[in-house]
């Protein structure tokens, strides 16, 4: 019986049922924002993102994949977009809808690689990790992890107002954070992303124009 925890970002029940039948512990999210929240609150071994069901185009997937870059990510989607999605940092790709046997093989392959210990240096220490456990390698323009989460949340909701508390819940999860802290990080993010049009609706929230 498998014991790994898989975050499934998908708005259907078929995939969840299929994975549960194989014994995986499934944590479900219906969209990217909910996925980011649950990823910050859970111990995960793998993220499966169903692009076709969420109707996300590769440019829209980029901030979500970047934010989840510290854990293995398997994307289900359209065959002609596989190269582009892998170049964004996804660990593996499979066409949607997947054949159950192929999906299981992909998952097992990813999890086997994840279980392997890192190679040792000649001096006996662990080699420097240059893979997906180094999220700062994907952080643009020197953003901190918190600023990167805010940036991802704004991009995933571009053109839509995000209320203050919703933004705080997405970025900090269960931690209690004041509005002053949110505004402080937003000012820092604006100064670093001078080309981005981050707009504040006073007393309500922020949105990316």
UniProtKB/TrEMBL annotation:
Keyword Transcription regulation recorded: yes
Coiled-coil region: none
Residue span of region Disordered: 109-142
Domain Response regulatory, first and last residues per copy: 1-111
Domain of life of the organism encoding this protein: Bacteria
MF-aspect GO terms: phosphorelay response regulator activity; transcription cis-regulatory region binding
InterPro entries linked: CheY-like_superfamily, OmpR/PhoB-type_DNA-bd, Sig_transdc_resp-reg_C-effctor, Sig_transdc_resp-reg_receiver, WalR-like, WH-like_DNA-bd_sf
PROSITE patterns found in the cross-reference section: RESPONSE_REGULATORY
GO BP terms: regulation of DNA-templated transcription
Keywords assigned: DNA-binding, Phosphoprotein, Transcription, Transcription regulation, Two-component regulatory system
Gene Ontology CC terms: cytosol; protein-DNA complex
PANTHER family attached to this UniProt entry: REGULATOR OF RPOS, TWO-COMPONENT RESPONSE REGULATOR ORR33
Descriptive protein name: DNA-binding response regulator
């Amino acid at each position: 019986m498998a014991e790994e925890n898989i975050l499934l970002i998908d708005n259907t029940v078929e995939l969840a049922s299929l994975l549960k039948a194989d014994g995986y512990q499934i944590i479900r999210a219906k969209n990217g924002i909910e996925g980011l929240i649950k990823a910050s609150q859970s111990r995960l071994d793998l993220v499966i993102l169903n692009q076709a069901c969420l109707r996300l185009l590769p440019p829209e997937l980029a901030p979500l994949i970047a934010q989840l870059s510290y854990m293995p990510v398997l994307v289900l989607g359209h065959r002609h977009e596989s190269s582009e999605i892998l170049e964004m940092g996804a660990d593996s790709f499979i066409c949607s809808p997947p054949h159950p046997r192929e999906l299981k093989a992909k998952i097992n392959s990813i999890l086997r690689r994840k279980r392997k210990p890192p190679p040792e240096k000649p001096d006996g220490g662990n080699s420097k990790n240059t893979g997906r456990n180094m999220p700062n390698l994907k952080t643009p323009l020197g953003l901190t992890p918190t600023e990167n989460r805010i940036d991802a949340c704004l991009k995933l909701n571009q053109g839509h107002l995000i209320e203050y508390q919703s933004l705080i819940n997405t970025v900090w999860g269960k931690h209690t954070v004041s509005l002053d802290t949110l505004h402080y990080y937003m000012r820092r993010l604006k100064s670093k992303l001078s080309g981005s049009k981050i707009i504040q609706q006073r007393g309500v929230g922020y949105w990316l124009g």
